[in-house]
Write a structure and sequence with these properties.
alpha+beta; Jelly Rolls; seven-stranded antiparallel β-sheet; 6 helices; 21% strand; coiled coil; Fibrinogen-like_C
Length: 387
């Protein structure tokens, strides 16, 4: 605040101009006071901001230290996890090596004791339908084992092929047999023939859907199938290879009773001829040939099933000469069997078909001997009896 000498103040007393000066001074003083107050407030705000910044700096430094600690912890955890992963990978590698060794061992055993048909698997107690390896031509003999579908509901062995799709479209062409479809099976011909020899019966389903598309007209055959010998066959059901016929022709219920097949009527709507080829000397179907489709309204489709074999072929009347020859002939059942020896004597032998060497642990007793309880050797196994 501006201070004036007393005498100057007194000198102004009663003077109008001096009163104005005093008022101006007082106003200026009040203005300065307000400015000072604002400055003090600003200083307080600045101090508060400084405190806030100081606290933020402390917090930032704390977080920086925490972040550094977390980084160290992360590095430790990362290093530990890498050690765990390396250890786990090593264990898994060892396990995979062990599994691979066991798989190779089982694969080798499978090649030795692979059953010849799905019927054999069923006899061994397998009840689940699925894909299995079988070896129709005999374990460790001929071609490698084949993978087939074992339908355990019907106890059937099904050899699949590359044309299993239902209702395959047939391309239009006019000449007889101009559209050819070779059939590639999941088995060699030798294995399929061995399978049929081991089975009681075999068949292959075939279906021809047609619209104005005949299988045959008069003496002209537009469609046929080739047997395994490469010979054309014109029958579409059963085993009668002498003439063109279908299932409806054999049962007498074709749409046109004067024709052997439904499709031969060339009806302008969809008809169908389906049947099962049961001639084991012709199976499997090697190729399909179609033709006679030259107009837009003529359409045809086909479905070819797999080679299906069921049951067991009758055993030969002459006894086998060993357990090995018995197994090669298709008998995979462990138990007592009649074996013919070189000297003409018949022996009752226990054949262990689950072993690679079936004859090494066989029990032999002379067939002409009295039937009695079989003794055991000191090891607890069945002993050999000669009388």
């Amino acid at each position: 605040m501006l201070k004036l000498p007393i005498n100057s103040t007194l000198g102004l007393k009663g003077s109008e101009p001096n009163s104005d000066v005093l008022s101006a001074l007082i106003a200026k003083t009040e203005e300065h006071t307000q400015i000072i107050a604002r400055l003090e407030l600003a200083i307080r705000h600045e101090w508060q901001e400084k405190e806030i910044l100081r606290n933020e700096l402390k917090r930032f430094r704390f977080l920086e230290r925490e972040n550094e600690n977390l980084r160290h912890d992360y590095e430790k955890i990362k290093s530990h996890l890498e050690e765990i992963l390396l250890e786990r990978d090593e264990k898994m590698r060892l396990q995979l090596d062990t599994i691979e060794e066991r798989f190779q061992y089982l694969e080798a055993i499978t090649l030795q004791i692979t059953p010849r048909t799905c019927q054999t698997l069923s006899n061994l107690g397998v009840k689940r339908t699925g894909r299995y390896f079988i070896d129709p031509d005999g374990a460790l003999l001929g071609d490698p084992p084949i993978k087939v579908l074992c339908d355990m509901d019907t106890v059937s062995t099904v050899v699949l092929h590359d044309s299993m799709k239902n209702d395959s479209e047939i391309s239009n062409c006019a000449a007889p047999g101009c559209s050819a479809r070779r059939v590639s099976y999941d088995a060699s011909l030798k294995q399929m023939m061995a399978l049929m020899n081991q089975s009681h019966s075999c068949h292959q389903g075939i279906k021809y859907d047609c619209s104005s598309a005949a299988l045959s007209t008069g003496d002209v055959h537009y469609a046929w199938w080739m047997d395994r010998h490469g010979q054309p066959q014109y029958y579409w059901h059963g085993s009668n290879a002498t003439k063109h016929t279908c299932k409806c022709g054999l049962s007498g219920d074709c749409v046109d009773l004067n024709l052997p097949c439904n499709c031969d009527s060339e009806a302008p709507q969809w008809e169908s001829d389906s049947g099962e080829i049961t001639n084991k000397t012709a199976l499997p179907i090697a190729e399909l040939r179609f033709g006679g489709l030259q107009f837009a309204g003529q359409k045809a489709k086909y479905t070819l099933g797999g080679l299906v074999c069921t049951g067991e072929a009758p055993q030969k009347e002459n006894p086998a000469t060993s357990c090995s020859s018995l197994r090669q002939a298709g008998n995979a059942r462990t138990g007592y069997h009649l074996i013919s020896r070189k000297n003409g004597r018949l022996d009752v032998v226990l054949c262990r078909m689950d072993l690679e060497e079936t004859d090494l642990r066989s029990l032999r007793c002379v067939f002409s001997s009295p039937v009695g309880r079989l003794p055991q050797d000191p090891s607890g196994r069945w002993a050999k009896v000669d009388r």
